[in-house]
Structures are given as structure tokens and as C-alpha cells.
Design a protein that fits this description.
nucleotide-binding; 10 helices; 5-stranded mixed beta sheet; 2 domains; 3-stranded antiparallel beta sheet; alpha/beta; BirA Bifunctional Protein, domain 2; Rossmann fold; Anticodon-bd_dom_sf; catalytic activity, acting on a protein; 8 strands
Length: about 240
């Protein structure tokens, strides 16, 4: 790193690709040893959700994003594809910036964002013969009622996406009425509703937004074969 780079953002030396810099910081203390209680709790929660979704990840103690307004977690999504050359290539990177809106004169508001390498992504999609669908509706919207339902709705959405369905859920802790309104706005074909009672019985209420028909189904069936749930209960 140059003197001007060090003066502008000294933490970038931790993420330097220069072998001389890497040798200098090899014995530097880990930033993870200096997290506040709030940051540690947040980071633990993020890792727990990744584990819940069976998403593999590596904790990189030396990664530093170039922008100075990030708070809590930063991340990079990398791939090892010959279509992009040898070794791992970053195709997406970002993080959380809870204070950015307020810093720019707006209200206190949390935020998260990322930058995506569109050209790299297009090369990857082409190499894997993947065509992105053009959607004007959502297959499923998962509605969670109660604090304890957040994790299970997240798992359901991920399982449905893995099974080829377009699915989404609420991320703003909105009331049920607002969640159903969002489902309607997204033109969702089905809603899956889980409250504390359903969580206890490990069931969910699946409703057709077209016919209005609603049935109670084991969560395990929704996550393993939602096509069968639709066929057995809604196809006429």
C-alpha cells in the first residue's frame, strides 16, 4: 500500500493482496477479539441463520471493505469457476450500514446493500446454461406471526427457492395485515402462514390467493415437496 492509501484508510492494510503487507500484518490482533457485546450478538445471530440454511461460509478475520460506513457484518460471495479464470473470484460484496441514512441527513434507519459484478454473473450463467425467468408474479409468500416464527419462515422460503419456486417473506417485522398486503402486491399465488400455535404443532396454513381455499399442512411437507401439497389440495 502507498502512504496516501494508509493515511486515508489504514485498515485496508489488513485486506491487502501485496505479499509484503501480508507479512507485516500476519501477527496483527484479530478484529473479532474486539467486538462489542452488541456486535458479537449480531454476528452470532448471522452465523446461526447461515447454519440454519446450510449455507457454507468462511469467517475471514482480515477482510475489510473499502467504504467506511459499514456497521456489523460485511461479506463477499466468491466462486471457483474456470469461466472466470483460475482461483476464486468475487462476484458480489457488501455489508450492513445502519447509520448511513442518518449520516446523510435522513431518519435513523438500518440498511444493507451490495455491489454485483453483472458481467461476471452473466459469464457464470452462460457457462452453466442458466436462463433467468421473467416473472410477473410470486409463487409463495410466507407470513410469520410472532417473533419465534422468523427462523422457520426463512427456512421455508429457502427450501421453496431450492425447489424451483419463487418465494419471499417479510424482513421488516411488519404486522400480519401488512404482510398479506405485501403478498397481494407481489401477486403471490399462495401464502403460507405460521403463528405460535402452528409453530408448536409444526404445521402451516397454506392458502390459495386465487380461490381463497386454505388448508393446514405439516411444515415438513412444505419444505420437502410443495408440488405435492399443491396437487393434493388445490388442483381440481
Amino acid at each position: 500500500m502507498t502512504q496516501s492509501q494508509i493515511a486515508q484508510n489504514p485498515l485496508r492494510v489488513l485486506d491487502s493482496k501485496d505479499k509484503r503487507d501480508q507479512e507485516i500484518v500476519k501477527g496483527a490482533p484479530s478484529i473479532l477479539d474486539y467486538l462489542s457485546d452488541d456486535s458479537q450478538a449480531h454476528f452470532t445471530a448471522v452465523k446461526h441463520l447461515l447454519d440454519t440454511l446450510d449455507i457454507e461460509y468462511d469467517v475471514d478475520e482480515t477482510m475489510v471493505r473499502g467504504l467506511d460506513y459499514y456497521t456489523h457484518t460485511i461479506f463477499e460471495i466468491m466462486v471457483d469457476s474456470k469461466s472466470l479464470g483460475e482461483g476464486y473470484t468475487t462476484i458480489c460484496a457488501g455489508g450492513r450500514y445502519n447509520g448511513l441514512v442518518e449520516e446523510l441527513g435522513g431518519p435513523e434507519m438500518p440498511g444493507i446493500g451490495f455491489g454485483l459484478g453483472v458481467e461476471r454473473l452473466m459469464v457464470l450463467l452462460d457457462a452453466q446454461n442458466i436462463e433467468l425467468p421473467i416473472l410477473d408474479q410470486l409463487d409463495v409468500y410466507a407470513v410469520g406471526i410472532g417473533e419465534g416464527t422468523s427462523e422457520v419462515t426463512l427456512k421455508i422460503v429457502q427450501a421453496l427457492r431450492d425447489d424451483g419456486f419463487s418465494a419471499d417473506r417479510d424482513y421488516l417485522d411488519r404486522k400480519p395485515k401488512a404482510q398479506f398486503k405485501a403478498a397481494d402486491k407481489l401477486n403471490a399465488q399462495f401464502t403460507i402462514t405460521i403463528g405460535d400455535r402452528e409453530l408448536e404443532s409444526q404445521t402451516a396454513n397454506v392458502k390459495s390467493m386465487v380461490s381463497g381455499k386454505e388448508v393446514s399442512v405439516p411444515i415438513s411437507e412444505i419444505m420437502t415437496n410443495f408440488n405435492t401439497v399443491i396437487t393434493n389440495n388445490f388442483d381440481e
